[in-house]
Amino acid sequence: MTEGRLHTRTLVALSSLVASGEISSIELTRLFLDRIGRFNGRLNAFLTVDPEYALAQAAAIDRSKQKREALGPLSGVPIAVKDNICTRGIRTTCASRILENYIPPYDAHVVQRLRKAGAVIVGKLNMDEFAMGSSNENSAFGPVRNPWSLERTPGGSSGGPAAATASSLVAAALGSDTGGSVRQPASFCGITALKPTYGRVSRYGLVAFASSLDQIAPITRDIRDAARLLGVIAGHDSRDATSYPGEVENYEVECGKAIKGMRVGVVRDAFEKGCDEDVASAIDKALETFKQLGCELVEVSLPHISYGVSVYYIVAPAEASSNLARFDSVRYGLRVLGEDLFDTYAKTRAQGFGAEVKRRIMLGTYALSAGYYDAFYLRAQKVRTLIWNDYAEAFKRCDVLLTPTAPTPAFKLGEKTGDPLAMYLQDIFTLPPSLAGIPAVSAPCGFSSSGLPIGMQLCAPAFHEGRLVRITHAFEQSTDFINRRPAAFELD
Amino acid sequence: MARTYEPVIGLEVHAQLLTRSKMFCGCSTEFGAPPNTHVCPVCLGLPGALPVPNGGAVEMAIRAALALGCTVRNRSRFARKNYFYPDLAKNYQISQYELPLNEHGRLEIEVDGVKRRVGIVRIHLEEDAAKNLHPVGAGGDTLVDFNRGGTPLMEIVSDPDMRSAAEAEEYLRKLREILMFAGVNDGNLEEGSFRCDANVSLRPTGQKQLGTRVELKNINSFRFVRKAIEYEVMRQQSVLDSGGIVEQETRAWNVEQSRSFTMRSKEEAMDYRYFPDPDLPELVVSDEMIARARAQLAELPAEKRARYRSALGLTEYDASVLTSHPAISSYFESCTNELLKACEKPLSPQQAGKRCANFIQSEVMRYLKTEGLGLQVPVTASRLAELIAIVEIGAISGKMAKEVFAQMAATGKAAKKVVEQKGLSQISDASVIDGEVERLIQAHPEQVEQYRSGNKKVLGFFVGQVMKATKGSANPKMVNEALRKYLEG
Fold first, then answer.
1. B430-488 adopts what CATH topology?
2. Kind plus residue range of the DSSP H or E element containing B356
3. Looking at the 3D structure of chain A, how many domains does it have?
4. B80, A205: Cβ pair inside 8 Å?
5. Which chain A positions have a beta carbon within 8 Å of B89's beta carbon?
6. What is the Cα Rg of chain B in Å?
């Protein structure tokens, strides 16, 4: 293997190269830092790159290796995290002016886990401001571009993690998913993302957008990488009261297991409405593949998921309006002094937050206001329970559910910025599983006529991430979508 | 003639729980530390930090609830109360709204012989705000000390069952006492660990429907509660008498001017946008937890007073003084127990109780007061029991005991040590006293003759001489007996 192609290898492959001593972590880290230096300008995927910090971690891994110490499951491989995940001593902006110079004094739980597993964190990735958006155009520091087509969006809100992983600027990344924020970007960028069950990964240190929905999720080249990364970050954390105390299963052993007899649920009405033709035909082909692999296709109906968008855009902004209240300039972050205290609050928040964040704060504040609470927030929570029930019913008849991840392939930058509602509809397939708290994967399942990646979404019952790994891996083995790469980033 | 009105009063009390750590993080709740030293990402509201409920605080709130006859919910919820203020790190307070931890309690009070049962609507858990400081020399800036931010509080909301300022004051005294005896609150009004807001309205006597209520904030002593409510009742009465209507508002009591001022009118009332806190799952309390809290619930003051009267034979007054604070009653109880164990002369529980009650109420309390020690008794209960035991067997007089106690308190020495070193020990050795008496009788034949011929007053002369010779330490009773024996026998 020539060194020039190392970057195309998976996280799992690279970590065994480091573990076996075929390459040092320092060499590997330099290679990726070099790629970031060369290509990030085109993509704007990174908000912060810290070579010194990265190389110090790599050197520590190499020293451990020399001392024949046991290396962790991510030994020495460069990865990066979305900029709403707190990193001690490294700026964490949430792609917002209000936190432009904010340096957290502590590491998020997942960052502690990554370090312990031997990962080399090279930097922080761009995103929609406070994870609010579906195109990464809401970043205060400029949009991320799609590696497959630079005039297109990489999706959002984890646009940076998806673009960086798809273009091999890092081996893998961590994003966060509230209503589809890792799945839709993975779909747009031709890679894999696995949103875990709500509670499976600690949110401690993830800057909150909508607390009842937020989950940190791996964004990777293939499903085995996702399984490896999820195995590292999953598990109980006493600092998050919503963290699930159950044992973490071994996700990686699911790779290679047969899926014969698995029942794949198909929600017909869901993807026939407003779905791009190329997307619909890619999903049809995927269904055909599953059939060939011995799966049973089952039609199921989820009568309430059509309310997913409405419910989500009440619940998520309501929680966000309260979560984002802490950005008031008193203790940290941007401060724009006004005439008095409340003027300072107003000026700081007016200048510090972008338009979409303000829109959602207003939506949420309204939904929680006296006289509207019952009609909006409470009603939305009730419908959320109905959606949860729909899934419970559906999973009596099938083992996984298949839908497209997004109704279209990547759209052009600027195409939907004037129409928030059209933008919100991007999440039509990804919102319902988030509202139900169940795990969902987005994996490449085809390409559009113009060569853009298309993703499929598979959902499973709560805490059945292993099942998603198994079926996605079987699909990967019988297709070659994960092996295609955006050409512009292969020129070495 | 002016109509008569009936005041209707309900109280909201915020009582700090005696946990060592805060409500949703592990930071210390210690009072008086340098500003912003007991803080962490959680109580500073840093991005990404999450709350985790303090199990100890939940347990204490349950104990308090049981002491007040509340029903404890097996499932309750934390909610966010949203408003912007610099002392609120997250700009929302984690509290409870719908589904509070405890509901439907009651507290019996008695004022001027009239008994009243005050209902308790709810007792819920919440976190305290930080403290805004306006120090001189900060150039007019406000500084925030987050040490207090996140301290566990119970909010205890009463029904509008009180009918006078005196009843409100009595309710607060009673409530404070119960919380202190339940071991969940230190009752310290100065440090703000027991705070009160009052809702006051007036209605024409005999009318069922309640009048418009006014909320009084910032009243942090029993005296001010009474004054503020009395002031408010008069204010509302004069508004009504002059044909006006009482506006619903929030008023703040101003101590210097002894009057209240409008803080917020009804129009300015806040919309707190309460909603269940998505960071915190339902708070689940099992029946076992409730049973455990019940078992841990110590004897409450009313029960103690009854027991002191019946088992120890104390007067009502003594019993109430000795139950004015849990520290005093526990000192009294261990002193009595020690005395029963330690005294060479067998005592009945009533005798021991009475001796200890007398000494504590006189000497100990006087000492604490003059030295400004609060409730920090410098002599342990068992050492005080030793001292009382020495008096009991006649080794020293009651008068000497006072001096010995002061010495014990000042030096930290045990009673016997002080008595020895000061040579205070009372001479109760019959042979010593007899010897002295014999010597005197031989030295003063004239006086002996006077006594024997009927002048009994001469006895005083002899007593004086014995005392002089023994530097006042002879047991007076024994001296008297010995003199009579020699003079008459």
1. Arc Repressor Mutant, subunit A (1.10.10)
2. helix B349-359
3. 1
4. no
5. 326, 331
6. 31
